[in-house]
Every structure is written in C-alpha cells, then in structure tokens.
Amino acid sequence: MAVYTDVSAEQLAEFLSGYSLGELLSYKGIAEGVENSNYLVHTTSGYVLLTLFEKRVKASDLPFFIGLMEHLATRGLNCPLPVKNRSGEALGTLAGRPAVVVTFLEGMSMRRPTAAHCEALGEALAQLHNAGEGFSITRVNALSMPGWRPLYDMAGHERANTLRAGLGDTVAFELDHLEKEWPRNLPAGVIHADLFPDNVFFLGDKLSGLIDFYFACNDMLAYDVAICLNAWCFETDASFNVTKGRALLQGYQSVRPLSAAEQEALPILARGAALRFLLTRLVDWLNVPPGALVRPHDPLEYFRKLRHHQRATTARDYGLGA
Amino acid sequence: MAVYTDVSAEQLAEFLSGYSLGELLSYKGIAEGVENSNYLVHTTSGYVLLTLFEKRVKASDLPFFIGLMEHLATRGLNCPLPVKNRSGEALGTLAGRPAVVVTFLEGMSMRRPTAAHCEALGEALAQLHNAGEGFSITRVNALSMPGWRPLYDMAGHERANTLRAGLGDTVAFELDHLEKEWPRNLPAGVIHADLFPDNVFFLGDKLSGLIDFYFACNDMLAYDVAICLNAWCFETDASFNVTKGRALLQGYQSVRPLSAAEQEALPILARGAALRFLLTRLVDWLNVPPGALVRPHDPLEYFRKLRHHQRATTARDYGLGA
C-alpha cells in the first residue's frame, strides 16, 4: 500500500497528451498494490488507472502482463484493459518508470469473503484459466517449487527458527517432501498466481472484476486453485472452512471440471502453495529495510495454514465432492 | 501521504447507508493529507471524499473545521462542502474515528507554481479571508508566536545544533527577536494557516479549489499572506522570486487591500512564518518513530528561508509596490 513514485501534474498532463483521453481533471495516488505506484486519473473522458512499475517488476516481463490483460479482456474476462496511446502502444514511460494506463473497474474487495463470494471466485478463476488459452507469450513461474529452496536459503534456517521455534525445521522437512512429491504433467496454462481477496472486486455478491496480474505466469492450473483455497477459505483462527472450500471448488468445476489427477493432487498443491507464501513472507519479514513504507505480511499465518495441509489427505478434506 | 485507518467495504457500506448518496461502487485509500486518512468514494450518485480524523486532530476542533467549510462554501469559496447524513449531521463515526464526507473537488496541485498561479492564489486567499467574516466559532492558533518557544524546547537546543551547526543558535536568537517585535492589533479573522501548493487545486492556470482546512484558526490575516509568501515564492535553491511575490500580493490586494500597518509588518510576519514551519518540521524530524510510514519534511528548507527574511527590511523586498 504505497505510492513510491511521485508524479507532478505537469508530467502527467504531458504523458496523457499522447493518449486520446481528453484533458486531465484530477489524479490521486492510491493505496493499492505493494509492488507498483498507482494513480486514479480523472480526465474529461472518464476515470482510468495509471500504474508505474517499480524496480521489483522486470521490464522484460511487461509485454507478458500487458498482453495477457488484453488477451483476457478481449475474451470477456472482467479485468483491466490496457489503453493504447496514439502510436498504438500500451506501454509508455513516465517519471523514469515504465507506465501503463488501464481501464478502471468498479467494485470492492471483501475483507471477510462468504461462501457465496468463494463460489463466484471459483467460477471466475476457471473463466480466467479458459480465457488464457491461446495466449502466445509465456512466463516461467519463478515462485513455483524449484524457486522455494533458494528463497529459504535467503531467509536462513537459523533466522527462521528465531521467528518461531520449529519453524525452520518444518520448512526444511516440507521442502524435502515437496521436492519429492510435487506433481508433474497436470494440465497447465496461464495462472494468476496471486488471486487473494484484495485482487477480486465485488458489487454485492456479484464478482465485478479481477485485478493485479503482475504475478501471472505459466504453471499448473490446479496450483492456482490451491493458492485460492489458501487465500479464501481459512478463518482468522487458521481453521479451514470446508463450506467455503466446497463453494470455491463447485464454482470452479461448474466452468472447468478438474481431472482425476488434479483432484488427487489438491492436498499436495495446497501444501506447496502455503509454503510458497510462507517463504516469500519470511524473506520480506526478515529483510524489512530501515524506514520501510510497507509493513510485511505475517509469515506465521501461512505456517498455521501449512500445518493444516500436512494433516489433509484427499481432496475431500477441501470440500470436493463432500 | 498515508492511509492510517483501514476501512472494509462492509463498514463503509453500512456507514454510507446513513446518507442519501446511493449505492457504494468503489473506494480507494488516497495518498493525501499527512494528518488524516482519506478515501475517494464512488457511489451511484458520484464521487465524494471521506476523511477519518486520526489522533493528532482534536475532536473538540471538529465543529470548527466542519462549520468553517460549510460557512466558506456557502459564501461561494471553492472548498469542500461537508455532506450531511439523513439526521442532518456532517460529523459521523467510522472504524472508531470521527469521520466526515465532503464534496470532491477537481483540479491538481502545482509542483512548481508560476507567477500566474501565485496571483490566483493571492486572490483566493483574500476571498477566503473575506468569506470567513461572520463565522461564529473561533479556534486559537496554537502554532502562532506564543507556541514557538514550547516547540523549540521540545526539539531541544543541542539536538537542533546537531542537525546543522548554528541552527539552534539562530532559532534562539529569532525567538527572542520575534517575541519582542511580533505585531499586535493587525486585522484578524479566520486564516487557513497551511495554504501550501499541495492544498490548492488548479485546472490549467485557473484556481479550482482550496482544501485541507485542518490547521485553520483565528489569527492576523496578514500572517496567512506571510505563510503563502514562504510556501509559494521561493525557488528550490531557496532564492526568493520577487516576481512571484509581487504577483501573489497584487492578487491578494485586488480583493482585499492590505492596510499600511499590515504592509509594514510583512517582513516580520514572514520571518515568524518561516520559524513556525522550521520548528514544527524540526520536532517531526527529531521525533520520527521507528517504522514511521511518513517521511518528515526537511527543516533546513525553512532555515534557508528564515535566513532570507532576516535580510529583508520592507514589504518592497517581497514585491509590494515594486
């Protein structure tokens, strides 16, 4: 939640003069997204969102992100559509940063999603997976299984144990286990990879849009389902709400049925997804720079979720077919 | 620039159900204001701004601030107008904070105001002073001359000298000088007291609105002019741009001519205004809490401005009648 790059009215007016968006009326830096700077911009033709990509986003990934949003939006998914400038380019430069203007989506993210929200999320996730078919650019998931051990080495075993006794040992055990058991050959395609409640807008119970495609990549589709089970179906006391899990999976399967192999793999994928967020949060937690403007997320939330997954044995434990 | 209090969609929808503003469509925490949390809220009836007052604002001051905006807006000043709820109240409670909804103003603050912007600012400041007449609530300016020595004691003489050699001694000298020479009996009324470029919106060269009345109080009107001379007419190298000063004063006097006594007092008022911002910035600078989300402003900017004012002798040095 931050605005890292300050843009002056003069700079922004100059930048927008390259677009067919009319005159600038106002703009506000908004507290959305942890990786980039975002401005809500009002012009005589309406509201758009301006994103400046900060250092953590690789410039070489931008054609994938921008192309993907175009691909998905033109296939009817409710997601931001990049706006092209008069030269036909969606990617520009502003204040020394790569910058993109996208359409503004109405709606609000839910702090405490209900089972109905989870069902709608499941449907939208499957629609995203179907809509991603035929997208020609690919992007490796740097945060999939092979990336976890390097992340853990970065965090450090001893430092992990200082955060909570036994945390380091649990992670070391999980890494060994997942490296052996991680599924291969499941249906793959474009995944969102970060579809937390923050990134899903609702108007009432109706899902109105998906945002923040800046972790999207190619990976197993069912891994995206497992990420969502982690992000949407636990209560604040770390208990898994199987009613929400069932709703999410029913919503998903109403659009894209999971294969038998995908269903069987759900528990191990959920374990891996929990470890992935535990590890990135751990690294962020142990490396907060002095004077940081962003508070890191609590890694222990995902430690508790991981413990839950270690006890699950079949997809029924997540509400599938139950 | 921060959002201190997080508001959920559920909380906000419940709060807005007390207003005649239609259905909530979206809301964004915006990076505006250093004392409060601000959200830009879109409902089926349009855009409004929601402010949650954080601890630094005294609850007992809120009727003054809200009443003043109503008073000024109904007298034609372009400033936010508090929106009343169905019970006729402008002040409500949200997420445990006093909260107010105000009308949204278009326009952008200028990073590098031109002389034309300074002239428009001068006019608007005088309009504000005239429009403030007849407002029945009063609020003492806690940051006027009698408040400066306590602020300096809070910063500490030795700590001030550590920031820059001689800074503490200069401040100590100024305090003695200003306590002796500070004008009394100049025309007084409601002043904005913080009308920096951040708080003034333009559409092109046309001033479209004044915002952030949360330092407003009763004090000498010419002191507000002196604050603006400090905030608008220095270049980044701390040189005073007399063309901008002249434009600001001409704009002001085209609406409300300064009396001979006010003109004569301008240099000492400008000195005091520089010291006031130097002192509050110094206190903030020396007291940044660990993990702070806001970077304090540089106190030395106002030290350099103060040095300029120490060399000025008459209002002609600020462009008056020149």
UniProtKB/TrEMBL annotation, chains A, B:
Q: Which reaction does it catalyse?
A: L-homoserine + ATP = O-phospho-L-homoserine + ADP + H(+)
Q: Which residues form the Aminoglycoside phosphotransferase domain?
A: 27-258
Keywords, A to Z, come to: Amino-acid biosynthesis, ATP-binding, Kinase, Nucleotide-binding, Threonine biosynthesis, Transferase
Q: What class of enzyme is it?
A: transferase
Q: Gene3D superfamilies from the entry?
A: 3.90.1200.10, Phosphorylase Kinase, domain 1
Question: Among its keywords, does the record have Amino-acid biosynthesis?
Answer: yes
CDD domains registered for this protein in UniProt: HomoserineK_II
Enzyme Commission number(s) from the entry = 2.7.1.39
Biological process (GO) annotations held by this record are: threonine biosynthetic process
The biological pathway it contributes to is:
Amino-acid biosynthesis; L-threonine biosynthesis; L-threonine from L-aspartate: step 4/5
* Listed InterPro entries: Aminoglycoside_PTrfase, Homoserine_kinase_II, Kinase-like_dom_sf, Pseudomonas-type_ThrB
Question: Which GO MF terms does the UniProt record name?
Answer: ATP binding; homoserine kinase activity
| Repeat among keywords | no
Q: Which domain of life is it from?
A: Bacteria
HAMAP family, per this entry? Homoser_kinase_2 (MF_00301)
Q: Which family does it belong to?
A: Belongs to the pseudomonas-type ThrB family.
Put simply, this protein is called: Homoserine kinase
Protein source organism: Variibacter gotjawalensis
Gene behind the chain: thrB
